[in-house]
Design a protein that fits this description.
alpha/beta, FAD/NAD(P)-binding domain, Enolase-like, domain 1, 3 domains, five-stranded antiparallel beta sheet, 14 helices, 22 strands, globular
């Protein structure tokens, strides 16, 4: 057993944990970071990075099947995640080396809080006792196994299996229509795999803007995906379908089949064995764990990334990791999620920030909405778009943007003008008078901003005039 003392001990070395470690080292604080799995977490190994590589490959294959095969896609994906050709999983050594170069001390093993300010790390037969002024929990999340009869008898896929697969399944059944489900459904469908996706709610991407959900469903159907909405899986019959496929009985009496079944019905957070009770945190279920993004749970205890809430995004994890360190070191700041962007990287991409019209009105905001059809815009004509939209939501009282959504090829980039506008509370008049390149997607926003300024002027609302004192003088 060995003891060591640090200012910060970080349990979990995914995006949130890494961001916290780097920020702490930039501020001169001593750091230990612990993980029993990959340093770097899921995102670079079985999440964001490989899935986006596969989406790009699927688009190449759909455009010209002879030019880009699944073998090429798989090899490119393996290169992206640093996975040798003879290895079952990626190599995370570059993440460890970068952290150590920054001055962090890395421990491979299972970390558990033994007492306030004390974390025990176990691996093999060794125990390291780490003492810290601050403990940062950054353990990420894992795929949730739904309560479906017979599912324990099936070797189901998670995002790990779907993003690391080297062979295409004969048929794929996706349970869950969130970002993971819809992105991977499109990947496999474009490579010629018959795909069905089952979503219990009435739309795909249920946390996205409703127009984005509609565009995603239309795009998947155009790629041949069998989209089933408003139904749940109730039972699985192992190899009960055609050609040895697994058969899934659905709540409406129908069924769906897949030689591989991908679970994308949500995430759960591995908090139960961390020892949070040492800080008075109740994990019995009697009190809901506060997934509100507050970051500070108790004196000297912080939670960042997926378990912290309010949503599940790698960029949120980066932000929270850095913010928690800044707060712990005395910076007078607090987390701000008003302008948290959400992006689904299907073709077309779908992006959303802030509030929908319904969400704004539900919170008491006097809002109005303006919508432009992307396919009939100059940009849409230029890229031969078949679908898409650009939508803004305006707060009439303040004359500022309170939400925006778009589904179009470059939505992940174009949304950030709206992210900044919401964060800085930029008046609509300023946005309307900003010159936007033609014929870009932001040029579509330019037209909507001009229409919004006219609407505000008609009603005598704020924001129709150009004067602006800046976000800190509101």
């Amino acid at each position: 057993m060995s003891d060591a003392v640090f200012e910060f001990v970080i349990v979990g070395a995914g995006p949130a944990g890494e961001a916290a470690a780097y920020e702490a080292r930039r501020r001169g604080a001593s750091v230990a970071i612990v993980d029993r799995g990959w340093f770097g977490g899921s995102c670079p190994h079985v999440g964001c990075i490989p899935s986006k590589s596969l989406l790009d490959s699927a688009a190449r294959h759909a455009a010209n099947p002879a030019s880009w095969s699944w073998r090429q896609a798989s090899e490119r994906r393996d290169w992206m995640v640093n996975r040798p050709t003879d290895a079952p999983e990626p190599d995370d050594r570059s993440h460890v080396e970068a952290l150590e170069e920054a001055g962090a001390t890395c421990y491979r093993g299972t970390g558990r809080i033994a007492a306030r300010g004390q974390v025990e790390v176990r691996h093999d037969d060794q125990v390291h006792v780490l003492h810290a002024r601050h403990v940062v929990v950054a353990v990420g999340s894992r795929s949730r196994l739904p309560a479906v009869a017979g599912i324990d008898d099936v070797p189901v896929w998670t995002n790990r299996d779907a993003t690391l697969a080297r062979e295409l399944p004969a048929r794929l059944l996706v349970l869950g229509g969130g970002p993971t489900g819809v992105e991977l459904a499109q990947v496999y469908a474009r490579f010629g795999v018959p795909v069905a996706i089952v979503q219990s709610g009435d739309r795909l991407a249920p946390t996205d803007h409703p127009r984005n959900s509609a565009v995603i469903a239309e795009a998947l159907r155009a790629d041949g995906v069998d989209v089933r909405l408003g139904v749940k899986a109730v039972a699985v019959e192992v190899r009960g379908g055609r050609d040895g496929a697994h058969l899934v009985r659905l709540s409406d009496g129908s069924s769906a089949e897949g030689h591989a079944i991908l679970l994308a019905v949500g995430r759960e957070f591995p908090l139960e064995d961390l020892g949070l009770e040492a800080y008075g945190i109740d994990l019995s279920g009697r009190t809901a764990f506060p997934r509100d993004g507050r970051l500070r749970l108790a004196e000297g205890l912080w939670v960042v990334g997926d378990p912290a809430g309010p949503e599940l995004h790698t960029h949120q994890a980066h932000y929270q990791g850095e913010t928690a360190i800044r707060m712990a070191l005395g910076d007078p700041i607090a987390p701000d999620y008003r302008a948290l962007p959400r992006v689904t990287y299907t073709d077309p991409e779908a992006a959303f920030v802030g509030l929908s019209l319904e969400g704004a009105r539900d919170t008491g905001v006097d809002a109005f909405e303006l919508v432009a059809d992307f396919a009939t815009s100059a940009r849409g004509y230029g890229v031969q778009a078949a679908r898409g939209h650009v939508t803004i939501v305006v707060d009439r009282a303040t004359g500022t943007l309170c939400g925006a959504a778009m589904a179009c090829p470059d939505a992940s980039a174009a949304i950030h003008e709206c992210v900044l506008a919401i964060q800085a509370r930029v008046p609509i008049a300023i946005l309307a008078e900003t010159i936007h390149a033609f014929p870009s997607t932001p040029r579509i926003l330019n037209g909507l901003f001009a229409d919004a300024r006219r609407e505000l002027a008609r009603s005598g609302a704020a924001g129709a005039r150009r004067e602006w004192l800046g976000p800190t003088q509101r």
